[in-house]
Amino acid sequence: MKPLLSKQTIWHLFEGKTSPLQNTLVQEWLEEPGNQELYFQWLEEWERENTQFKPNVEQAYLRSLELAGLRSGSSSEAGFTPETPVRSLGNRIRFYQWAAACIFLLLGTYLLRDFWFYKHYETGYGEVRTILLPDNSRVSLNAHSALTIPRFGFGTGSREVQLTGEAEFAIQHLPDNRRFIVRTPDQLEVQVLGTEFIVYSRERGSKVVLNQGKVQLRSLTNLKAQPVVMVPGDVATLSMKGQLTLRHQQPLSTHQAWKHHRFMFENTPVSEIAYQISEQFGVNVVVSDSTLARRTVGGTFQANTVDDVLRVIADILNVRITRTIQPDQSVETFVLTPVH
């Protein structure tokens, strides 16, 4: 379990007043993404409270040489008043604590450089979240998804974001026609000017659904291929092998249902339904019978929890659902078995 730290402790870190043990606790605390964002907020507050700090560089330099034993001559030559041995030891300890804190901050800045330059938004299983970006574009994140944007200058400079999972984008058009670019882990690049679209990118590939406007797609794994231009109603898929496929005049409501915690199926195989439930709620859904896996379901179902959707599937298909937790697994497993 990661330690719980107060704002006062973090402020002491900025002021060089923390002990080596506290520095270690802060480093462990920063391993949590949520704490990293809180750390940045507290840093901004501390900077507003401490807007002016002007150290005496020359005196600090001479003192550091004296403590390190590198400066010849007596301390009085440097303008220092002789001190008792006890006082000198105290100053040395404080100097080493200050130096350790500085080293810790520099090391932390290097290790967290991704955090300093980028802001991260995430959703848990079963969670849908809407985010307003600095350029007034709106993003709705589906469950178990993550969006990364530049922390500084977004909209005035780059408008590039990274997406893992699924999200709907409503892009704000800017006077200078600045492009908005979405990138996915499998090297799919989506370029837009002002439009509404959905991007899906998970382990089994990527998908783009265009609602309004126009977007241009290209796979960065094959730069020789011509970009694909989409129009409203198009659905583009990128396979795990990097092959881009475009389908026209597709029903969009099916792809947008997750925004309202709904599942929409149109002759959807049970095997595909099981996969969607696993993605949405972070559980394992096992279809024990191959004939059952090929059966199809149609309809729209409200489902805020995994139990909601599985209860509907059980009633429609007349199947028994068994819930288990394997000793070597941290997630629940639901097994669908036909009732004969």
Automatic annotation (TrEMBL):
Pfam families listed in its UniProt record: FecR, FecR_C
Residues spanning the membrane:
95-112
Q: Which domain of life is it from?
A: Bacteria
Report domain Protein FecR C-terminal positions: 262-322
One GO molecular function term of this record is: sigma factor antagonist activity
Q: Which residues form the FecR protein domain?
A: 121-216
Q: Which UniProt keywords apply?
A: Membrane, Transmembrane, Transmembrane helix
**Protein's UniProt name:** Iron dicitrate transport regulator FecR
